[in-house]
Amino acid sequence: MFLALRELIFARGRFSLMGGVIALIAVLMVMLSGLSSGLVNDGVSGLKSMPVTAFAFDQGTKTDNAFSRSVIDDQQLNAWRGTAGVAAAEKMGVGMANATTDSGKQIDLTLFGVEPGSFLEPSRSAGTALGAADGIVVSSTAKAEGIDLGTVVTLDRIGTKLKVVGFTEGQATFGHVDVAYLPLKTWQLIASGQAAPGTPSSAQLSALSFDTASVVAVQAEPGTKLDLAAGDTTAGTSSKSLSAAFNASPGYEAETMTLSMIQVFLYAICALVVGAFFTVWTIQRKHEISVLRAIGASTSYLLRDGLAQAAILLVGFTALGVAAGLGLGAAMPDAMPFALEAAPIAIATALTIGLGLIGAAVAVVRISRIDPLNALGGQR
Amino acid sequence: MTNPTFTSAGARTADAPGPAGLSIRHAVMELGDGDTKVKALDDVSLDVAPGEFLAIVGPSGSGKSSLLAVAGALASPDSGTVSINGQDLSQLSRGKRAAFRLANIGFVFQSGNLIPALTAADQLRLVNRLAGGPKNFDPAVLLESVGMAHRAANRPAQLSGGERQRVGIARALVSGAKLLLVDEPTASLDRARSREVVELLARQSHEHGVATVMVTHDHDVLGYCDRVAEMVDGRLGAPAPVR
Ligand SMILES: Nc1ncnc2c1ncn2[C@@H]1O[C@H](COP(=O)(O)OP(=O)(O)OP(=O)(O)O)[C@@H](O)[C@H]1O
Ligand SMILES: [Mg+2]
After folding, report:
1. pLDDT higher for B82 or A249?
2. Looking at beta carbons, which residues of chain B come within 8 Å of A379?
3. Which residue has the higher pLDDT, B160 or B17?
């Protein structure tokens, strides 16, 4: 690295220009990664936090918006309960609702109907567990909407009144809307269209003859790999693993695909720009490299030196860009779906450096084709 | 003058068998192909002993640079043999030849050909590292011997043509090579500078027992050489002593 370091200092103008481009790419990388984590959280954090292995949808349900589209019954639930390797299976109701709080604020909620006390019951950061017919546990992010323990929300049109009894641990949103967990029976009352205005009573619930829900949530026994296809055949469902089910949440696939595409382009741009820079740089050094080869420098020494130079440039300026990106990300407004998570940022950083190095390597390999004979005679 | 670099590197070349110096036998080399085929070297034989300073003159295109390329293990002749300090170059693989050049041959190119990013001292340090030389290598000793110690911290852009050439000579001597190949060292220098540089080359070869082959167009400087040979159309005339 003797030569590499001295050249970095000697041509610092050119290298910092290139470094600036790398740093800006890294900033953009961090922002995109934050945005994509933020969108994922906004879209499916309500699902992500569930201790669920797979969701079983009614057979033939269209993937997009499948959660609110699918309808399953007790027969399908029992088939799943009887499937080998299943520790627990529960019905779950999913629906979207517009509502108004008692202070007159209009909010949107995703209603998750779950059996109180089952494995689907969310862990809470405040308040009491599900149980009361009108009690709901809402996402902690709903606090920003002015919702508090004891707040009563009225569902638009049908006029059913629900009371906030607890908040979830962390964010629980689905399709960019805060989740409200409620007892499955209450959810069925609302879904059946038989709900009356006012607080739902237990008399209403016991009179209800409506036992379907949206999906079967399946939890596998620890350490077993569930045979989803076998369960599907007996239950007449089509099931998706938890992460595959994300695509069944509204708009999820479109959003993540758009962002992934932008990221892929950015990685390609990084590799190409760094490759182009080192191609020009290597061509500029052609004469001095032929002199070094004539003197007797080995090809491997020259290649290592050139790669070390690229690595120093990439690592240094990517680190700078990531630091700047993290600083910028911390200053993002709350309204923007943005989440800085260590793992995706680490992967993005590694990819920026890795692909940049590949670009540089392709350029630096030219060194091995430079003929030491060029050193003789005049400058050609 | 005692110079620690020469003693250490002298030991490195001393274990090579056979006669020291450069020996070329019946070298033939053709360049180009088809209609443009040129006999750059036509049955060239040449011996240069350690401590001898030989000049090669001749018209442009007569094959002088080709001779240096063959003598310096940069190109292989089509037929004939080249041996340096008893080592037959045709026995060496491509990779081995680079290592051989590093330890045994010093090159001085037209206008110095220094690395722009390196100071005069670092030019020498780099070659010492490449050659795996001593860790405590001090470039000042060699720079002093070419009268450049006071510009050790300067980059090539801050040196005059003659100064660059002198740093180039010091660089060629770093690994203690016993064969120095010099291609038109005075092409970009005025008369006084040319004399200084060639005088320096003569002194280095005589004092340290280095066999030196210098290609030149500059007839003024031939007085410093021991013998002169003329090259015409790829044929090398018998080296004649300088009066
Ligand atoms: N790569 C090449 N391909 C074909 N012919 C070549 C090549 N290099 C040199 N030649 C020819 O070989 C002959 C010898 O060239 P060389 O460079 O050795 O001459 P030279 O004596 O050093 O000339 P100058 O004094 O101009 O440097 C010339 O006729 C030249 O045109
Ligand atoms: Mg020439």
Report:
1. B82
2. 110-111
3. B160
Query: Quick check: ipTM above 0.95?
Result: no
Q: Which tokens in the block code for residue A84?
A: 């080998």
In chain B, the number of structural domains is: 1
Mean pLDDT of chain B: 87
Tell me if B2 CB under 6 Å of ligand 1. Answer: no
Q: Which domain holds residue B207?
A: 22-241
B31 within ligand 1 shell (Cβ under 6 A): yes
C-beta neighbour count of A343 within 10 angstroms: 9
Q: With cut-offs at 50, 70 and 90, classify the pLDDT of residue A110.
A: very high
* Per-residue H/E/C for chain B: CCCHHHHHHHHHHHCCCCCCCEEEEEEEEEECCHHHCEEEEEEEEEEECCCCEEEEECCCCCCHHHHHHHHCCCCCCCEEEEEECCEEHHHCCHHHHHHHHHHHEEEECCCCCCCCCCCHHHHHHHHHHHCCCCCCCCHHHHHHHCCCHHHCCCCHHHCCHHHHHHHHHHHHCCCCCCEEEEECCCCCCCHHHHHHHHHHHHHHHHHHCCEEEEECCCHHHHHHCCEEEEEECCEECCCEECC
pLDDT at B155 over 50: yes
Q: What is the token pair recorded at A280?
A: 């020009």
* Domain-located, residue B11: no
| In-domain check, residue B16 | no
Cβ of B61 below 6 Å from ligand 1: yes
pLDDT reading at B14 higher than 60:
no
The answer to whether the CB atoms of A296 and B130 lie below 8 A apart is yes
- Count other Cβ atoms within 10 Å, centred on residue B80: 18
Q: What residues does each domain of chain A span? A: 2-44+253-375, 60-235
User: Which residues from chain B sit within 8 angstroms of residue A377, using beta carbons?
Assistant: 65, 110, 183-184
Task: Report the DSSP beta bridge partners of residue B212.
Answer: B53, B180
In a domain, residue B195? The reply is: yes
A377 falls in which pLDDT band (50, 70, 90)?
low
Taking residues A370-374, what's their average pLDDT? 86
pLDDT at A358 over 90: yes
Predicted pLDDT of residue B243:
67
Q: Summarize the confidence of residues B28-33 as an average pLDDT.
A: 89
**Å from CA of B26 to ligand 1 middle:** 19
Q: Per the domain annotation, does B118 fall within a domain?
A: yes
pLDDT score recorded for residue B18 = 54
* Ligand having the closest approach to the CA of B62: 1
Q: Residue B193: which CATH number?
A: 3.40.50.300
- Give me B70's structure tokens: 């063959």
